[in-house]
Amino acid sequence: MASNQPSPVCQRTPKVFVASNVGLVSEALHLRLDRRSEIELVGNGRLSAATAARITETKTDVLVLDVGSSGAGAFAADLRQNQCTVGIVGIAIGSTTLDIADWAELGVAGFVDDHASIEDVVAAIKRVSRGEFSGSPKTTAALVSALVGRVTSCRMPEGVKKLTPRETQILLDLGRGATNKEIARRLGISAATVKNHVHHVLEKLDVRRRHDAGAIARSGRF
Prior knowledge:
Layout: E1 15-19, H1 23-33, E2 40-45, H2 49-57, E3 62-66, H3 72-81, E4 87-91, H4 100-105, E5 108-111, H5 118-129, H6 137-151, H7 165-175, H8 180-187, H9 191-205, H10 210-218
C-alpha cells in the first residue's frame, strides 16, 4: 500500500513545482506563480519519471498537480510509493475521473476549485506547506462524506478471492488511478481486453465504478 505520510511542515519560503501534461496550463501557472514573492518556484514539467526525479532533486515542498491530466493519479501514487513526502495541491478538480476521496488517499491535501483564482492557488500552497488541509467548504463537505461512506464499508469484499492473477493486476492499477490505455501499455495487451477485465473485476467485487474498485485496492482490506 502506498505511503500516505504528510509532508514535513515548511518553516521557510516553500519550494513549488508545477506538473501538467497540458503545456499551456503548466506554462501559464509557471508564469503567474513565478511572480509571487511568498513562494519559490523551482520548475514545471509533464507527468513523467524525469519530473518526479526533479521534484526530489529540488527538494520541492509543494507540488501543484493538474489532476485533470491523463495519468495524474498514477503519478501521485508513484510519488507516494517512492516515499516522496511532497505536499500536493490539486487543480482542475472538476475535470478528473477520480473522485475527491481517491485524491485524498493519493496524498492530495489541497483542492482548488475550477473557478478559483491564482490567489486561491497561492493560499492553498501556503496552507499545504504548513501541513494543513486546504479546500472550499463545499469540497471539504464532499470529502468528509465520501470518506465516511468508505469507512462504513471496511470489510474486504468476498469477490477479491475470486479474482484471477490478471484481474488482480488490473485492480492494483485501478488503485493507482491508471486509465485503460495506460494499463494496456503496461501489461502489453489491448485496451479492449483491459475493458473486459475491468468489467469482470467490478462484477466480482460487486461495485459499480472503477473508483470504488480502486479504493479497495488502496485500502488495508486488499
